[in-house]
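User: Earlier you gave me the apo prediction for this protein. Now I'd like the version with 2-acetamido-2-deoxy-beta-D-glucopyranose bound, so I can compare the two side by side. Same sequence as before, with the ligand SMILES added.
Assistant: Got it. Here's the input I'm using:
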Amino acid sequence: MSHRTTIAGASSSFWMTLLYHLAVLSSLCCLVSGYSERDRVNDLMSHYPLIDGHNDLALQLRIYHNNRLSQVNLYNVSKLATDINRLQAGHVQAQMFAVYVLCGAQGKDAVRLTLEQIDVVRRMCTEYEDLQLVTSANELSDSQMRKKIACLISIEGGHSIDSSLPALRMYYQLGVRSMALTHTCNTPWAESSAKLYDVYQRQNNSLTHFGKAVVEEMNRLGMMVDLSHSSWATASAAIKLSKAPVIFSHSSSYSVCNHSRNVPDWLLQELKKKRGLIMVNLNSQFISCRSEANISHVADHFDHIKKVVGAEMIGIGGDYEGAVGFPQGLEDVSKYPALIQELLRRNWTEVELADILRRNFLRVFEEVERVRDGLSSQKPSEVQIPLEEVQNQCRLVLRRPDPSGRSPSNTAQHTPKGLIILAVLLMISNILIIE
Ligand SMILES: *[C@@H]1O[C@H](CO)[C@@H](O)[C@H](O)[C@H]1NC(C)=O
Ligand SMILES: *[C@@H]1O[C@H](CO)[C@@H](O)[C@H](O)[C@H]1NC(C)=O
Ligand SMILES: *[C@@H]1O[C@H](CO)[C@@H](O)[C@H](O)[C@H]1NC(C)=O
Ligand SMILES: *[C@@H]1O[C@H](CO)[C@@H](O)[C@H](O)[C@H]1NC(C)=O
Ligand SMILES: [Zn+2]
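And here is the structure of the complex with 2-acetamido-2-deoxy-beta-D-glucopyranose:
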């Protein structure tokens, strides 16, 4: 009897103790619920670290250092919002680095400048051992296991190809896996969302015959078509034409903030039909349509787009280094966890968050590669833009002169002014020879 009582007593005190510990633990959890929420975010982002769609670090390297990488320590760049230490702190595992050259270079030395920007991204992603240049979805997944930050190269603006499919193909060879059809200027073949430059104005024809050839060649190569910065008409035409999913690498919702860089709901619906991706831009101007914004405003974009097309179409394209003002609490690339925490509070599921952090992007990238593989029997496109659509003084045509003198190349180069200069030069050289 007494023996049994002792056991019962010990047993009940065991349960009492357990209950006590549970009570203490749960009250601790309540006391420090901020920590447990943060832990949950860290846990989630450790398993599903971010693939971000847009960062202009390469532009800043040109502006501040003229691309002299030796002048900077990329682990700690306090004057910028991006460096390796903060990318790691923010659980950024992959970054599409934009290769951007000013629209003013269009028809001039845009190709040289683009090559120089590709060079600086390639250099930084091979010289720093925590970074890794990747060019396929497989390499991207592999880089996560190796604990590297993957770098993807994306061209920001079709003026970089100078209306040349061979130039596009050579960029692919250098590792470029995404290109925005326009930046803030129209190209001879696609239309920008901005009206900053009055070049290549058009009423109609937002994606010309050559523009369609560009999209088709990007499908064949396995390069993502990026529609951020393009007009809605161009975006819509490209979505309809593209065989692979397309992306908006850094745009937000027009319904929430009616900025011309954002995407309206009807266009989101078209994007969804192609299983594409909108990677939400964090630039305050596109978030709140004002210079000030906070995390709630950002989360409103995510909520709205999810309501319209579902979480499977959403990613994140921060646009750090490409804009001046970022929302309070999202000032630099280490702050992404705060955004994920806010979405958790708004009842986004972990599955949805894993999708927007990386799985949606991987799905699109893999699909772009599948489309490429399906087109592997197709030969490189030989479509050329009509000369009259790209005439400018920098464009030489390597072709035998047409004896009839009526070829477009002759009209492009032998202007009366050019002929007069040529005649004067000949006269001078004759004089020099005679003397
Ligand atoms: C980063 O550099 C700044 C000065 O540029 C310095 O004040 C800061 O302590 C450095 N931070 C780290 C983590 O090294
Ligand atoms: C657009 O172009 C088509 C032919 O390509 C033409 O039929 C139509 O009238 C044009 N619309 C405008 C507004 O110029
Ligand atoms: C955007 O919305 C604001 C009010 O929210 C309005 O004043 C403005 O005219 C709108 N702009 C455009 C381009 O629709
Ligand atoms: C963001 O600003 C709005 C007012 O514009 C305010 O209602 C909201 O509480 C703020 N959110 C945060 C997280 O500060
Ligand atoms: Zn941009």
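For your comparison, keep in mind: Residues 1-10, 407-416, 418-424, 428-435 have pLDDT under 50 and may be disordered.
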